[in-house]
Amino acid sequence: NAGVTQTPKFRILKIGQSMTLQCAQDMNHNYMYWYRQDPGMGLKLIYYSVGAGITDKGEVPNGYNVSRSTTEDFPLRLELAAPSQTSVYFCASSYSPGTGVEKLFFGSGTQLSVL
Amino acid sequence: GESVGLHLPTLSVQEGDNSIINCAYSNSASDYFIWYKQESGKGPQFIIDIRSNMDKRQGQRVTVLLNKTVKHLSLQIAATQPGDSAVYFCAENINTGNQFYFGTGTSLTVIP
Fold first, then answer.
1. pLDDT tens over chain B, length 112 residues
2. Testing the interface with B: which of A103, A105, A108, A111 to mutate, by most B Cβ within 10 A?
3. How far apart (Å, rounded) are the C-alpha atoms in residues A35 and A3?
């Protein structure tokens, strides 16, 4: 198993540009998450999904969009990039048996700079 | 959102000593806790977890202690090695909900 795979690893955007961060997992996990991590800080939840076709906002959803058309993929879309979105983005997944979440498995991250 | 705080932002220990990393949580309804290790340039890696019906759980060289009375969590690393140098995060889950809340992390440096 590859686990959670994120692409790209690094990206530089100009203000106002758009991009999609890709995330795929091959563990058949039903839950998937997007977090951002600013320097010296913890992880903040952007969006999450409990299954294909279902998404919900986390703590810091503004400026982002997500979709979950398949169990495996959970892309994160930035429509109009702003300097405040400069961060490291982590995708995670977990298996929930229906009685709450289990531990999260993380990808290796995407470092995004908006200039 | 909920906050999970750490008492010490940095910790330095000698190789071979035991390390203790602390975490305070604010929500008494939190019922599931995880410790993660994050090495530079990598994603967080699961270390150990504990549910609120337990006070202690042991893994390989690691022990997590949970004190629900004072809402405190600690991670003990035995015989700390240079490879243990990383940032350690605690995360809490509330009422078996869908979200985890992460603290800001403690940076552990192991001195050879």
1. 334 554 448 999 999 999 999 999 888 889 899 999 999 889 999 999 999 999 999 999 999 999 999 999 999 999 999 999 999 999 998 876 778 888 889 999 999 9
2. A103
3. 17
